[in-house]
Protein: Calx-beta domain-containing protein
Organism: Phytophthora fragariae
Amino acid sequence: MTIFRQWPRRWLLLVVGIIVVLEALRGVEAAANGRFQFAQAVYSTTEDFGVAYITVQRSLGSDGRAAVYVSTIPGVGTAVAGRDDKPLFNVSLVWQDGEDFEKAIYLPIYNDGKPQESPKTFTLNLHDSIGADINPDRNRTQIVLVPPSNLVPGSFSFMDAAVTISEGTTLTVPVRWIAGTTSAASVQFQIVCKSACSPGDFELITPLTQLLQWKRDDYPANVGNRTQNIVLKVPDDGLYELSENFLLRLVTVVATEGDTIGTGVVGDIGEMVVTIAGPNDVRAGTLQFDADCFPDCASTKYSMFAGGTARVVIQRRNGNDGDCSVTVATQDDTALAGLDYERFERTLSWKEGDTSDRQIIVKSLPRPDPRLPVRRVAIVLQNSTGAPINGAHASTTYVDIASVTNVFLGDVNFAAREPLESVLRIPDLSFIELASRNTSSRLQLCPSVRMTEPGVLTVAIQRNFAAFPVPIHVTVNTVAGTATPGVDYEPLTNTVVAWANGDSEVKQIVLNVLTPPNYDPRPRSFWLQLSDVTGAIVGDCNVLEVVLVGIAQGPHIQSFDLDMALGSLTLRINVPVQASTLDVSKLLLQSGPFVLETHLHWKFAELRRTHFVTHVQSVEPANSSPPPAPQQRIECAHRVRNAP
């Protein structure tokens, strides 16, 4: 019994032994075929290199033919498939019987042209092997795209170490990013208060975060220095203050953990001194010539006789802070330096607190000729320091120099009829400008001319107070208005009219009024003007208006076509029509029998009107032997509508 009880245990041990032997034999077979694995767990390359070199091994055996597939694992890593690398899908590697060497894979790497600031990774996987197993500890490998070694964050710097601004202005401070090759950069700045501080003396407008940021894509590729701005506003606080200042300082951004590139450095000019100019709100006053009021009134004008002097007053008004000075100088107007007056240029000065007036003396030179008109010399303020000069109305004054005589040389006007008689006959002449009594001691009506047809226009020019033995010259020019020179009239340019000593005749000038080539119903006008007179002055009637009314040739019938077959009369007008109506035109025709080739007889119907341009007069058939008809006049009223 004991022997039979031990048999089951022995059979169990035998079965276990057989299984162990079979497993051992299987391992020997597997070991003989080898197994697949990546040669390295990590491969590295760069975008500039453009390829990743990966090797796959068959180790621990080479019996039989074997193969394995290689693929990219989607979504694993930071590299973007198709943009950073060419993804692999079921790429097969095959070993023949007895082959155990490494197989290479060349994987294309793409360069997107943008700076790479951190490593990019993706992973390859071995799968679906045939004829050999895959080593589970080396069935994956990681490819790392390493950033290039020349990637640098650059430096940051102000353009100037110091700047000065005034109150009531805005300050823009440029900051440069220099020699950076990264895609983006940033730097912080600090505002350090000194004698000036925010918010009372200045205010930061932008960026409020006190962080300047750059993106390289926002600038051209060939630009080495890229600029961002700090903008500050300096208000005018209305207080008297001396110069104040504060600092702007650049500070690098703290790098994040694992950042191998860095955040840049502060360059040569990392600190700027901003000075607010002073003293501020100084009441230095304003410099000007004497005037009836300050600051809007014009300066006082002066006069003197030839050989005399004029005293001109210069003022400092509305403030006395600080020293100031101004240069006073003469300038020729109608008077000439050295002939009519003594030229001078002088600098006047005021001390702080001084607002007393300054005076200068203008000396004129004697010229006994009574025929000389009044001459004028200009006095100007210029080159001021410490205080501004008032506007042109008060920074320039004039001194008139008159000859020592009571002789009045008279004036020159366009000749006119006695206006008092015209006013009494036609009271409503308010639209006509009347000359004043200070020229000829009589009421004078300024003339105007109205022309209704082309031709020669004769204009008279008169000289008042002609008994004095003074020669006079005056220039006559035409001034274009709505009329066109050379089209509506022949222009006059610098036409001189002269009177000799004692000459009292009325002078005449001739002007040709032309026929315009085109029709225009509107009145047109131009002027004759007297100017550049010597020996006298121009009077109030120195401008003559010439009005052209109906000068252009009116439209009329130039030719016609009479079509008896169609029963229509077509008229042709001589000029292009721009008016809304056309005057009545008359055409005399012989009304009598007319035989066509069709043996029909025609005659004109009774007198009638039409309002159409082309369809004028209809005709109708008559009897075969009509009596002779008298002459008839066909009157046509043409209404031209919307003619070009």
